[in-house]
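Task: complex structure prediction.
Instruction: return structure tokens for all chains below.
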Amino acid sequence: MEMDKVLDVQNLHAVFRINKKEYEVLHDISFSVRRNETVCIVGESGCGKSVTTLCVMGLLPKNGRVTSGSIKLDNTELTGLPQKEIRKFRGRKIGMIFQEPMTALNPLLTVGYQMRENLILHRGVDKKKANEMAIEYLTKVGIANPEQRLKQFPFQLSGGLRQRVLIAMVLSAQPDLLIADEPTTALDVTIQKQVLALLNHLKKEMNAGIMFITHDLGVVAEIADRIVVLYAGRKVEEGTVEQIFRNPLHPYTIGLINAVPDVEKEEFVIQPIPGMFPNITEEIPGCRFNPRCPHAAECALCTKEAPKMTEAEPGHFAACHLITAGGAQHD
Amino acid sequence: MTEQRKPLLQLRKLKKHFPVDRNRVLKAVEDVSFTVYEGEKFGVVGESGCGKSTLGRTILQLYEASGGSCVYYGKSIQELNPRYIQDEIDKLKDYQKKAGDYYQKSLAVDAEAEKLRAQTADLDPDGNKSDEAKYIRLRKEIAKKEFESKELRKDASRQLREGSRTVGSLILCKDIDKIAELFTKAENEVRTVHQTVLKHNKIVNQIEQNEVLLDQKANVDKWIQDLEAKGSLNDQEEFELADLKAIKKNTASLDTAKLQAEIEALKPQAEQLKAEIEEHGRIEMGYRNEAFEKYRGKDILPLTELTMDPAYQAKLDRNYETGINLGKLTKQEMRSIRPDLQMVFQDPAASLDPRQSVGKAVEEVLQIHTRMSRDLRREKTLSLLHQVDLKAEHYYSYPNSLSGGMKQRVGIARAIALDPSFIVLDEAVSALDVSVQAQILQLLNRLQEEKNLTYLFITHDLGVVKHFCDRVMVMYLGRVCELSSCDDLFKKPLHPYTQSLLDAVPRMRLNQEENDDEILQGEVPSPINPPSGCPFHTRCRKCMDICKETMPKYREVEPGRFVACHLYDKEGNQNA
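Output:
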């Protein structure tokens, strides 16, 4: 079991310095990604999901740093490595797909140039071979007449095609870990469906782990094997898709699921989570969710002590005092 | 049920074309017709580039429509007194004459085509080579003539349609001069009513302002006490306190008795003006009814071959507009009707000025459109902030200190500031997180119930539409695919595009079976160069030969359900 963990993040803490004060943006985050598995990191904006990916990629901005914890990629410790070393992993062992495909491609260079550059750098092949491989990978991601596409510039491609090109580029380096940061948010639903189907299909053949960042629970249901729910820089729940959708334990997860106006639901009463998402500069004692939690009044510990991760059923963890106190009692 | 509801906005074949270069246009919105009823939440769904945003903006006349009409019923003609109506009345005779001329021309062209056809009868295209060439040439010419004649007839009926907007089927009558006279008389009454309405509103405003001043004078001490009792104040409360003290200073010298007396004196005046308004309104209606009773269906001119057909007359009668045609208003008139028609934008941050406090941003709306005094504006702004669940202290905040949801609330407060009847929500919740999105939807629902608002909800999120809207319209490449009640659409989508769109929506459902055939392939074609026939045929799973050639007609397949698809042509005919 240990062996096939591609990414193993343990007790990760990270801080941002704002106005000479340090604020904790990630607190005790642990999760792992295995080969041939898609792990979805879910949460609202500001919950720390993008910061987590930045930590893994070693791309934190200058005012941010990892204070403790470990990030292991195939048993190689990434934290504390100098930038020069991390560069060997970035792009080759860890591939990343971004939300906005236009900004991830260079508008002045042809698709072919950018794909070849990638192949020459990471796979060490010559230009001719790189061209052949580029065509091969473009075909793999379902792009018709790849020879012609290679000669085109990014602005000549539609949003869906650009995202496919990016996926082909990332795949061509044969990474062990693929990080997809909201790759379908900027796309229309019909195109989103195509890209998700492509990712699901590719997962089977590329033998890598996928870390998928999204805020859309519908997308999660379609692509994820396991889910990690983050709230205000803390992990609140982790489990398989089945466990989380059938039996969500943390009040935040429940609220999130109830708030989605899903097409599947026949009857739907709009049920927002009351209150506002906390600012990182805000100090909240105890559980970070307690000001918005419907059960906070029932439990004396919530405002005093931060809850610990508890295993409610095999592989299903949640950090809530109500579960620690004896089983899930949410209705 | 549909008949009983009062229409608020009626669109007929609305078009919006953007010029791309000298010869090409981008048909962003093409022939969109629908009616929005009062108090309804009308959804418009489609992928990006389908023209849904353009549609919203064209309705609000932020873009000038390239064709068709958009009639608004939320305000009476008397209240606005638009100039275009008199212009239209003056043009009635012209319309009639032009329609006749066009029709005569088309008859002439028909005769020419007939002559050519007679020539072809003598030829033998199968045997003789020279005959064959001539035959082909003649056929081409005949086709050209036929097309010309068809276009001329269309022009003729277009003229009549334009005229019927002002007088219904009376446009066909011989005594058009007398009809125009009656309508001009009615129009004069409208003008009088309009003047009176303006006077009336001024008096009502004066009364309201006096009442606020009295209220402030009576309560300002208590408000200050309440605030001071709090002890430690934050910055925003400090501001509030300073403001209240200023109010106290201003109101100190007011003469309560005089204000009260003014109110008492103004009230009967308002009553009297109201009676006048009603009286003139009655006279106006009298003229209109007289015109219809005297002339409807009598002395009809044979302008075109259709004019004697009662069905056609009834159709023209339906064109008769009792509302305001937004496309024909002058800029100034449009500006005075804008308070009724508001918009909330997608990006809450971009729609607010970062250097303007929230209070100023909302107050600005009142400053431009009303003549409220400063105190009254402040009062109103605070109550608006309260209505959208913001605190009074936010009056002094700047947008950078607000979260996305709060910014969107400010946008909504701005939109409802002038008591509109119709709001276009252009992707108003798309940029928000799910839990905040639900909060805003809840707020919109509540406001709608309280103020009897009507929404045009533009979105790409089918989930939100399903649970928020009453009726929904699906658009593709600037055209309507399907229009139906929300329940029906999600239970049984008729148009293949709607079906694929529904399939593509990510659902919170486990163990989904992946079926690659079901995924809609390809991408939306360029609207500059749309496919021939049905715009969706390039991606449609059920594409037939006819789809590639002819544009499907937009028809009612079931009561209240409109679809533009060839699949339902046959059924439609069978049912008829």
